[in-house]
């Protein structure tokens, strides 16, 4: 799929990816390829600190608000 337009996160760079969760168009800096999520969704899913260790976290973790 081809994207054209600006990243919906920073609104300054060209969007090259689409978040599989929310559909946000994101540039390379605001997209996590490992999870196919924009940084906003990655942060909500507990994967905001993108690192090799964080990719091992599964969906069973419960976060208190």
UniProtKB/TrEMBL annotation:
Name recorded for this polypeptide: HIT-type domain-containing protein
């Amino acid at each position: 799929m081809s994207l054209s337009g600006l990243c919906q996160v920073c609104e300054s760079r060209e969007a090259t990816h689409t978040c599989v969760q929310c559909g946000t168009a994101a540039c390379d800096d605001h997209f996590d390829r490992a999870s196919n999520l924009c940084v906003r969704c990655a942060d909500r899913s507990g994967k905001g600190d993108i690192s090799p260790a964080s990719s091992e976290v599964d969906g069973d973790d419960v976060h208190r608000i």
